[in-house]
């Protein structure tokens, strides 16, 4: 769908400060039908890459190509594309419905089609009750959801989202992930950026990992990430006998609560031992890797 | 296909501005106009219809220029700052269509302002027994053209400088564009060829707003010859078109980051 090849972006600055290389010879592809996560810490160059893909800014070197199914001209390509910018902001005095009609009309769909899409997706995004209200009265989560709705109104073949999940509460994230998965199942290619590993891990089949303007990994998710079987669990137990020797580490918290770190393989045994020892197990959590850990893992494997 | 995109953008730009509080100002100016008219009829012995006319046209010109200046400076820069521009141009919309749509939408607001205030001005003038001579309509049309010219100056400058500087530069241009007329006739200027050349050059290159202002004539004349009016209309139109081309050219190439 997208062929991003040898792209370099240097931000020229004034005489006092140095030029800044935001992207350094980055190449990757987004295959048709895939769900690709674009991973990287803040400042890694994700937004810059997406702006280059969208032709909002021009690269210093390299180029971006779209596959022929997206269309031949720039306007044709944009007809088949849905884009949601980072931390989107909206015309505050338009109502939700006006905004959706505005965006849908620009994407060349009829009013009746827009009405049908809004009737279908509105309830799924829990914005249907607020469509008559001005956007300035919307919460951040609602804005993100109506923004996403506007990017899929016209059934684009390719959807590009810049940090769509950031700033949402856990329920909001779950909901948005579910619709992203649903839209992807309808055959759409999805490319979205994130700095949160579990989000990418959960829903993507491929990852492109950027660090300080360089590509450090491009491939399937499961070979980037350690499988759940190799990870640790954090288990909180209140009272009972101390089970220090069975855990990787033990920390005692107030109210006789102990925090154990237990390897995945020993989890079940540990739990039955804890219960047998008279403890009250009240939390069990899989430890998710951070960006840094993954980065060092990819470096180690090279 | 593109004209419809431009109109879509214009329509929602108009709605967005219309629902902001900007037209409230128009309402208050209009109210002020009615009050002044009333006061003028009650307390002046001279020519109340002239006061109404003078005040009305003055307010019309001031509010139109104000709309150009303060809405114009945000027209594109706010879109870029708040990234709403990305939502629009990520769709099948060429950048020139985006600009034209924004401008047409703002001109819609401008037209609404002119229609409301000039209707009130003409009504109160007529009510007070003043004559509605053709020059009044020319003056109103010229105000619209002057505001358009200022709007395009502001938008162009806002592509190159920040908001505050853009407002200041544009105001300076506006004041100079009016003052340059007074200076031309001065004998001091006539006696200094270099200064005269400089002013002529200014006149030639930068917008001569005074050409689009008929306020000085309105009170004392009933009409002006077309040989005066038409060249000035042509000047305003051609200058505006030139600015528009420049704006589109710059925006087409601009990095939107
Ligand atoms: N217009 C610009 N001028 C100078 N530096 C910029 C500009 N835009 C982005 N950068 C820099 O480029 C780097 C990458 O930014 P960005 O692509 O926004 O990162 P990400 O989206 O991955 O958080 C950052 O260090 C940022 O400061
Ligand atoms: Mg970013």
Q: Radius of gyration of chain B in whole Å, from Cα?
A: 20 Å
Percentage of residues in DSSP E strands of chain B: under 5%
Mean pLDDT of chain B: 86
Helix content of chain B: over 70%
The description of the largest β-sheet of chain A is: 6 strands, mixed
Named once each, the bound ligands are: adenosine-5'-diphosphate, magnesium ion
Query: How many angstroms does the end-to-end distance of chain A come to?
Result: 28 Å
Largest interface: A-B, 34 and 24 residues
Shape type of chain A = globular
Describe the structure.
The complex is a heterodimer of chains A (302) and B (257). Chain A has 302 residues and is an alpha/beta fold. Chain A has 10 helices and 13 strands. Chain A has helices spanning 46-53, 74-79, 96-106, 111-124, 140-152, 170-185, 197-203, 221-224, 267-276, 291-301, and strands at 2-11, 20-30, 35-39, 61-66, 81-84, 158-162, 189-194, 206-211, 214-220, 232-238, 249-253, 257-263, 280-286. The longest helix of chain A is centred in the middle third of the chain and has 16 residues, at 170-185. The radius of gyration of chain A is 23 Å and the shape is globular. With 257 residues, chain B is an all-alpha fold. Residues 11, 20, 22, 40, 42-48 of chain A line the site of adenosine-5'-diphosphate.
Strand and helix map with partners:
The complex is a heterodimer of chains A (302) and B (257).
Chain A: E1 2-11, E2 20-30, E3 35-39, H1 46-53, E4 61-66, H2 74-79, E5 81-84, H3 96-106, H4 111-124, H5 140-152, E6 158-162, H6 170-185, E7 189-194, H7 197-203, E8 206-211, E9 214-220, H8 221-224, E10 232-238, E11 249-253, E12 257-263, H9 267-276, E13 280-286, H10 291-301
Parallel strand pairs in A: 3-7, 3-8, 5-6, 6-7
Antiparallel strand pairs in A: 1-2, 1-4, 8-9, 10-12, 10-13, 11-12
Helix pairs in contact in A: 3-4, 3-5
Chain B: H1 2-19, H2 22-43, H3 48-81, H4 84-89, H5 95-127, H6 134-158, H7 163-185, H8 187-191, H9 193-205, H10 215-218, H11 226-253
Adenosine-5'-diphosphate binds next to strand 2 and helix 1 of chain A.
